[in-house]
Amino acid sequence: MQPDSVVSAACSGAGLGSFTVVDVETSGLSAADHRVLSVAALALDSDGVVVREFHTLVDPGCDPGPVHIHGLTRELLSGAPRFENIEAELTQLLAGRVMVAHNAGFDYGFLAGEFGRIGASLPVGNRLCTLALARRVAPPVPDCRLATLATYYGIRQQRAHNALDDARVLAAVLRSLVTDAAHLGIALPMLACPPDRPGARRRSAWPSTPPKTMCEFEYPGRFTDGGVLVQGMKVAFTGDTRVDRVQLISRAVAAGLDVTRAVSGRTSAPVTNSQESLTGKARAARGHETPIMTEQTFLMLLERIQPGTPKNMSAQPGEMGSDPHARTEAAGPLAGRRVLVLGGPHAAAVGARNRVADLSGSVAVNMSASVSDVLALEGAQNDPRLGRAEARGLPVHGTELLDSAGPASPRGADAREIVEPHVMCRGQVMDLPIDEIGTEWSVRVSWTQDESYEVDVVGFLLDSGEKVRHDSDFVFYNQPTGDGAWLTADGPSEQTVELSVEQLPQQCARVVVAAAIDGDSVTFGTVGAIEIEVTAGSESGVFARATLDAATEERALILVEVYRRGGAWRLRVVGQGYPSGLAELARSYGVDVSGE
Fold first, then answer.
1. Which fold has domain 234-302?
2. Neighbours of 275 (CB within 10 A)
């Protein structure tokens, strides 16, 4: 099958129309608070060929925010159409089609916000996130950023953060990803986006956590009274400001500071116009004995900011050979190999996956380009993935693989450049390298796609008494945002809990990430293995991976915990299942579910 026909078959096989690729540039990261400055929409035909392009700047009527990132000044935007003047053309390009974007929830959220402001509805019934698709295909790349994927597929990118160029690059990346997915037998992770209905489970409306602008400098420590600002210092803004808050943040980021949304013991200085401010950030600063800086002082010191120490930006999670918390156990015979277990009764498959992990192998739940070996148990011949594996020339083993691993499977030159993630087993604990990598972490949960069941991923923010402080510390499908935690979904069999450890409440001692089956007739025995990938942000390479199997009767499963230990944050793989459902699990952590 030729590439064009592969793309066409992928669309028609999903029972959907053609794709429209979208990219937006915005004045900030919050769809509720910030505006679209530029939008590009490329309509593709059923062969993935661009048949119509639309691109325009948009005058938001407000400060354009981080100009150093997108280059769109107030003067450049002056005279551009307002969003209401382009709504009709966007509607023509989006209605009845699949909206495609990289980190699609971000673009979807901003467009939905702009349509809502003018009293209209975003005419998107289904969306496809190429970030989620790239994670599912798993080409041999160190991360899933658009620029990285473009380089891998040989696509030239001319102007990053330019909506039209990014959309053109993404259209080409989409064709390559869809072709690879078809060859691997991977279903496209389409996400339905129906209008909100009272009482509906709003999975499709979950927001996507936008990527934070990463600071390029090492953290130099806290600010001291009478001192100077140094690039890499962490600052937070609180209370009213004379200069527009977005502009303040933009100037701070451009100067090399790390702007945070909460105050922790590592915050260099909060900025406020009142030393007696009663905001939560100011109270937190006093609790940490952190000096509070006035806006006037901040702006004065910003003009004399001292150079910081640049980070090694090329380092990827897992590359830190000097990391004192890296695994020290001897690598087993399956180290560096990704094994897909097919067939077998439930108990045999569970045992095989556990044995692969014991031998330092990484267990795959779904077929992807990263799979290096297949372990075929009884009945594997009935799984269509076995034929695809054989067609790709992958080694297919019997249970002898678990006794004597044999020689490593051949890997391509690109694959040799990939840093292998930490492979973790049930009960294993390791420190998260917050200082080396950053404070933004993602716990991504995925499973085998099947329309016969729904899995809900949830998060509990617990205090030292193992209870939530209030119901808002329970993050789930109808309440996807908490303090320092967000729930996102970019496909029908993948959900992510995003964490900013700096923004978690001071009382939060532990974050529990769990999964539950919707309904009474299905258990995790039906779902099978659950894959967990921990990354430093949504587009980064995988830092740690674990595969968990629940027994046959469980309907709720605690997956991992992220918890404080001294001054560090640690990750524990749990894998504890319960026969009761989500409501009972929530009650055990102090959530009031009496209204259900």
1. Rossmann fold (3.40.50)
2. 11
